[in-house]
């Protein structure tokens, strides 16, 4: 049988769908982070989107470039909950001030806390393996 | 007005050029925040200007790509596209664009990065794209043995719709409540969406090459088909190179790494065929579609080279989250996508009217000025990115704001080059819009005079 473009296209599409659904199923077989209310944290992500924090800030390198990456802001020395609250309320030279409701503020903090606990985004905490891949120390 | 006589392909192209002008202006305003911190912060500010700029230029590419497919189909397909469907599609896009800009101006966000608008406005886009898909398949079913560009258009249209829907999976709590998988899917979407419109635009580039050279083998060669499948393979599986630092399943990162490395084949082929393409281009030196395609060719070389290096995990660790990524994104959207779209606009919009007798000398000057500006723009972002990379890997980091102050010179250069890019690309876009509108007005006037004269004779 002669291989036609439609055969290769169909094969690649099947592989793609299998791969995609495999990724969609990850939440089913991976553990939820302990010590966090995932529902509140996910509401915090909506607050992050509502105020478009991603325009200037990154999480794991995804987001804007005007402000610092906030993946581990919660546990960073000299930062943490109090500083985050103050910065959101008063803003900085570059950042506007935001008037979050008490519920929004607590959801956002929960989101940042659980993001912080999910891993390390600081590239200094990674090592290069012999096969060229990088891995957290 | 007779709906059947409207060239919807051209309508999409003209709309895309207008959206581009808006996007370029907004880009200049947004870049001012890098040199004047806090510019307009309590009114529009970077928080609105960035998404307004990004969405506008994305719509330039998406609407332009749509215009290219419709214009191409008008030439090659026996069954014409349905103008009713394409006009509804165009109308939905206009509604979406107005709604999205309103959403940004009034700070009613709620979406994810690059699609920050209220998710409600995604609905007209999705319906418009569905109509595009139906219209496309209605028309191409009459073409036997599809050339490669028809395959690429089909791939781009189908995958855009799939990925666009995937882009909103976060609205389902099952996905959103698992931060790492949610972020993994977000990167998957970002990578594949870009891959989708690239398929449409690279397909258009092949279509234009075939049309300009008169060599119909281009679209049917086995080598081009193998390159297409390699591109498709990368669209589907290479996005994992964006998430080396994300603690997701290791196999996703390894697949991303391994698949991306196959792009070296494309890179080597570009170098191998370089001499031939340059000779061909020199033959058509004053031909604008060819000039813009040559520019795209050079930017493909620079950007694929950069992307390949950035995809090596040990290098990515430095460049991830820095302006090197921005340089790559801008280099591809302006250098490759926009150059192909300009080539297509010159080819598809041009007619026999006098208004299309361009001032070649002036346009050539504008062309070269835009290329030099883009190079400075790309270079300054890369240097800023490298400096940030050094900072983020240093053991004794100065505060973030101090590091940003250290990049001030490169940001000034970036903003000046950005302004020059805006001026030159706007000039090209306006030239095309003016010529097209001038031609339309002339044709109408001639028709009216003809009817008046014939009625006088009668």
Q: How many H/I helices of chain B?
A: 17
Per CATH, what is the topology of the largest domain in chain B? Cytochrome C Oxidase, Chain A
Number of strands of chain A: 4
Q: What's the Cα radius of gyration of chain A?
A: 20 Å
- Tell me the CATH topology of the domain at 35-123 in chain A: Cytochrome Bc1 Complex, Chain D, domain 2
What's the CATH H-level superfamily name of the domain at 35-123 in chain A? Cytochrome c-like domain
What count of structural domains of chain B?
A: 3
CATH structural class of the largest domain in chain B? Mainly Alpha
| Helix/strand structural class of chain B | mainly alpha
Largest interface: A-B, 60 and 76 residues
Main sheet strand line-up of chain A: 1-2
Spatial shape of chain A: elongated
Spell out the helices and strands of chain A N to C: HHHEEHHEE
Strand percentage of chain A lies at 5-15%
The protein's oligomeric status is heterodimer
| Biggest sheet record of chain B | 2 strands, antiparallel
Estimated radius of gyration of chain B: 23 Å
* Order of H and E elements of chain B: HHHEEHHHHHHHHHHHHHH
How far apart are the first and last residues' alpha carbons of chain A, in Å?
51 Å
Q: Helical segment tally of chain A?
A: 5
């Amino acid at each position: 049988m002669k291989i036609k473009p439609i055969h290769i296209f169909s094969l690649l599409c099947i592989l793609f769908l299998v791969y995609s659904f495999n990724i969609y199923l990850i939440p089913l077989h991976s553990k939820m982070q302990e010590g966090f209310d995932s529902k509140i944290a996910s509401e915090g992500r909506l607050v992050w989107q509502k105020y478009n924090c991603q325009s200037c800030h990154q999480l794991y390198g995804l987001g804007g470039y005007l402000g610092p990456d906030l993946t581990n802001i919660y546990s960073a020395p000299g930062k943490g909950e109090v500083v985050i609250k103050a910065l959101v309320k008063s803003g900085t030279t570059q950042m506007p001030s935001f008037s979050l409701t008490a519920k929004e503020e607590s959801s956002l903090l929960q989101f940042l806390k659980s993001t912080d606990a999910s891993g390390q985004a600081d590239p200094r905490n990674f090592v290069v393996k012999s096969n060229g891949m990088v891995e957290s120390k | 007005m007779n709906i059947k006589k409207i060239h919807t392909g051209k309508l999409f192209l003209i709309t895309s050029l207008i959206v581009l002008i808006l996007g370029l202006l907004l880009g200049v305003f947004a870049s001012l925040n890098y040199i004047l911190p806090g510019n307009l912060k309590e009114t529009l500010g970077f928080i609105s200007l960035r998404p307004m700029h990004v969405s506008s230029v994305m719509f330039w590419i998406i609407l332009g790509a749509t215009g290219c497919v419709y214009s191409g189909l008008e030439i090659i397909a026996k069954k014409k596209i349905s103008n009713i469907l394409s006009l509804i599609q165009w109308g939905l896009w206009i509604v979406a664009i107005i709604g999205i800009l309103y959403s940004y101006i009034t700070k009613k966000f709620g979406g994810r990065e690059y699609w920050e608008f209220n998710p409600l406005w995604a609905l007209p886009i999705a319906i418009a794209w569905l109509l595009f898909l139906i219209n496309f398949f209605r028309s191409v079913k009459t073409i036997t043995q599809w050339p490669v560009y028809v395959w690429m258009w089909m791939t781009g249209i189908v995958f855009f719709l799939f990925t666009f829907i995937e882009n909103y999976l976060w609205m389902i709590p099952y996905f959103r409540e698992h931060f790492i998988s949610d972020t993994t899917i977000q990167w998957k979407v970002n990578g594949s969406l870009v891959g989708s419109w690239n398929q449409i635009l690279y397909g258009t580039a092949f279509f234009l090459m075939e049309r300009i050279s008169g060599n119909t083998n281009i679209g049917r060669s086995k080598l081009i088909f193998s390159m297409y499948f390699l591109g498709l393979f990368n669209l589907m599986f290479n996005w994992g190179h964006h998430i080396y630092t994300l603690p997701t399943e290791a196999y996703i990162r390894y697949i991303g790494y391994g698949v991306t490395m196959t792009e070296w084949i494309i890179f080597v082929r570009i170098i191998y065929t370089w001499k031939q393409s340059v000779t061909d281009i020199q033959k058509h030196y004053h031909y604008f579609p060819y000039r813009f395609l040559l520019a795209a060719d050079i930017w493909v070389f620079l950007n694929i080279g950069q992307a390949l290096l950035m995809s090596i995990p040990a290098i990515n660790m430095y460049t991830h989250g820095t302006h090197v990524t921005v340089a790559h994104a801008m280099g591809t959207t302006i250098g490759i996508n926009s150059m192909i779209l300009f080539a297509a606009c010159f080819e598809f919009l041009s007619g026999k009217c006098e208004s299309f007798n361009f001032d070649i000398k002036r346009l050539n000057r504008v062309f070269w000025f835009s290329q030099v500006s883009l190079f400075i723009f790309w270079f300054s972002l890369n240097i800023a990115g490298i400096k940030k990379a050094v900072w983020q890997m240093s053991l004794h980091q100065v505060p973030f704001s101090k590091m940003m102050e250290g990049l001030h010179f490169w940001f000034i250069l970036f903003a000046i080059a950005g302004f020059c890019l805006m001026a030159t690309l706007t000039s090209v876009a306006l030239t095309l819009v003016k010529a097209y509108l001038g031609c339309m007005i002339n044709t109408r006037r001639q028709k009216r005079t003809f009817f008046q004269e014939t009625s006088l004779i009668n």
